[in-house]
Design goal:
The chain is built from 18 helices and eight strands. It is mainly α and 581 residues long.
Amino acid sequence: MEANIDYTQDGTVDLRGQPVLAEKTGKWKACSFLVGYEAFERMAFYGIASNLVVYLTTQLHEDTVSSVRNVNNWSGSVWITPLLGAYVADTYLGRFWTFTISSLIYVMGMVLLTMAVSIKFLKPSCENGVCNKATTSQIAFFYASLYIIAIGAGGTKPNISTFGADQFDDFNPQEKKLKVSFFNWWMFSTFAGALLATVGLVYIQENLSWGLGYGIPTVGLIFSLVIFYIGTPNYRHKVRKSQYPARDLFRVPIVAFANRKIDLPNDPSELHEFDMQYYFSTRKRQVHHTPVFRFLDKAAIKRDTSTGSRPPCTVTQVEGAKLIMGMAMIWLVTLIPSTIWAQINTLFVKQGTTLDRHLGSRFQIPAASLGSFVTLTMLLSVPMYDRYFVPFMRKKTGNPRGITLLQRLGTGFLIQIVAIAIACAMEVRRMQVIKMHHIYGPKEIVPMTIFCLLPQYVLLGVADVFNAIGLLEFFYDQSPEDMQSLGTTFFTSGIGLGNFLNSFLVTIVDKITGSNGGNSWIGNNMNDSHLDYYYGFLLVMSTLNLGAFLWASNRYIYKRESTEMKDEFVELEGKAIDLLP
């Protein structure tokens, strides 16, 4: 036993499949090689997303609704494709190799996009700042480059963060404590990359050249990959303990349906389950029975398999299916908040282009750069949250995280509602100023400083510290053990569908309000539209959604799993949310 003391207790291995020493691998030492990639990848993504609506309208001559729809569709694809990447990682290649292949596809897409905006015959010709309409082949090459990036993001996004979390041993109390702060500081690196994009790259794109604005993050991405592979000897790799982990997810309801006519035993201990020795020897985690979705418990009823009946599932397998159903319930009520988040790179930018953006007599701020205040707020708030808020609340609640994950989400959603209410009020004020000064033209500047939009950006930044980080941690923490990459795609797919939902809402609202000769709420002329009505519509939806979230979270029961041979279990969160703090 003495010889094994220095090895990790969770069974992680190196790239060759050999056990790794706890002292020389993993922890923040390994994560330091990963955060660089995350920062540069986010700089690349936000360098495109933050100003894409401007490129589409000024360079490709798309109208407002089409450009907003195309930005949302691309952003949605970037966040949806991780479903496939996570499945491939959990079932076939593992996180490291899925990330490796996908990152090369991502880089290829960035190189092609840089070419699309740089090489003369691939971009629209411009004279005196006015660009001609792009040809079909130019548009096709541009969008093909964007969607190659989306495919690459599908394999990198769900695996790099979970790979980072894998560097901490849950069976080691000291490392488990370090892991509590991991997602906060992981997202800090994300925010740093986003800040560089919204402050620096957006200015370069609009004032120097689009090619340079896309070329810089491309070079940075290649550099970060070199750093990532230098750190390979320090990484821990989780061994897949089920060959096809997603199979149990489908097997449980099938067996439960087959046993639908059999009565459940009154005592859950009579359901089929392996003993603790099995879980201790295999290093798997036993998940304890919970009294939700009881119809699935029928999959674990003990039956005589000699009669040809299906073999029963274990309680742990059944609880895995319950976890996915519970997370799906929470996931549904994150779609509207993701729709609010989608405004930052679309309508907020278009709103900003109508305002006075001057700092002094010569310098003019790009409208998309105001998004930097979202990330700047996050960068300032994350250390305060981790160093002050969490210890303060930990003393009051006894929870290692300070507040439960669902309480964190609810707080973020509430702040988001305040932000969209302020956005609506500010748009009402903008419309009043337009009437006072008789402004009608689409290119006329409203005599209001762009900084009047600052409160809505800052509040969305504070909200993201609670709900963006909280969502990522919640879906990783609550996923079945062998499906944590797939579990984190609840986070990415929620953002993706939120973008698609915003695209759908913008299109429908434009068609309905612009029919019969009426003025569309979201027209090409932002000075003759009614964004205030659309923001009010989002405000009502967000308020109703918060009520649905409170209902769903009060019915959610956190995962309870054993990590030791003794009959003990870890239930970090306790009961689900009762009231917001």
